[in-house]
Design goal:
By secondary structure, this protein is of the alpha+beta class. It has a single domain, classed as Deoxyribonuclease I, Chain A (4-Layer Sandwich). The protein is globular and about 40 Å long.
């Protein structure tokens, strides 16, 4: 009981923080099959998404679903939000879009929105990236997102995980002059796995412990599949990072949360934009 109460206090403190002028709250969220079916609670999605300033979203099925989310977040926050998305991406019959959502008062799009040209066909769903700027301090950052193939086993995922280092180096060339880069997404693999070796030479996961996928049992989380990777040098000024355990915030059971929101919780970091 004490542990739960402490968690509620932490989440309440996060909520109370709101939009702070000298920092950006950047998140990555797999919103399971956004735009498919009629089970999604967009007010609940907006309540969660509205806690952040910038969100990379995976599993966007339709533009209409993304538009509904944007409208719901604008209604919830009373602020204007920007959005962009990729085309439908995928090798086989299953395809999804990637998307970025941001609080327009704090962030602006700069340039470079592109889906990675994967000449070696190493990714089932090629990553998507763009460059943005924090309006208050002028700090630019690169946001990239990917949803790694799950497959039948870890062996199916590992080639994509290992290929991420080459993608990271490509990002540093394409967005030269912008060293603050974040690779966000659902990697379907814990950062503790050995397949991350090449990537760990150039970047590090901001969330190293815990889990981000909702189990069927209330309060329990199964796997740390979602993460945000940040450069080792120069290290960005990250104040905090973690998993935003949204069912506790909404006061919902995991069963209800998985049905009407997502089976993934957002992962986030807080970036200091001014010294």
């Amino acid at each position: 009981m004490r542990k739960f109460a402490f968690l509620v206090v932490l989440l309440t403190a996060f909520l109370a923080g709101g939009a702070v002028a000298d920092e950006l709250r950047i998140a990555s969220w797999n919103i399971e099959h956004l735009g498919h079916g009629n089970q999604k609670s967009y007010p609940a999605l907006a309540q969660v998404a509205g806690q952040f300033d910038f969100i990379a979203v995976q599993e966007v099925m339709t533009r209409e679903g993304l538009e509904r989310l944007k409208q719901a977040v604008e209604q919830h926050t009373g602020e204007r939000w920007g959005m962009m998305h990729s085309h439908l991406i995928g090798r086989g019959s299953y395809k999804e879009k990637y998307a970025f959502l941001w609080r327009a008062q704090k962030i602006e799009y700069v340039d470079g929105a592109v889906v990675y040209l994967d000449r070696g066909d190493r990714f089932a769903r090629e990553p998507y990236s763009a460059r943005f700027r924090a309006r208050d301090a002028g700090m630019e950052f690169v946001a990239a997102t990917v949803h790694v193939l799950y497959g039948k086993s870890k062996a199916d995922r590992e080639p994509e995980i290992r290929a991420l280092r080459d993608y990271w180096l490509w990002l540093s060339e394409v967005y030269a002059g912008t060293p603050t880069m974040f690779l966000m997404g659902d990697f379907n693999m814990s950062p503790a796995e050995t397949g991350w070796g090449p990537m760990k030479a150039v970047a590090w996961p901001v969330v190293a412990t815990g889990a981000s996928t909702l189990s069927t049992h209330n309060g329990r989380y199964a796997n740390l599949y979602d993460n945000i990777w940040a450069p080792r040098t120069p290290a960005p000024p990250i104040k905090e990072a973690g998993v935003y355990r949204y069912p506790e915030v909404l006061g919902w059971s995991h069963e209800k949360a998985r049905k009407h929101v997502s089976d993934h919780a957002p992962v986030y970091l807080v970036l200091q934009t001014k010294k």
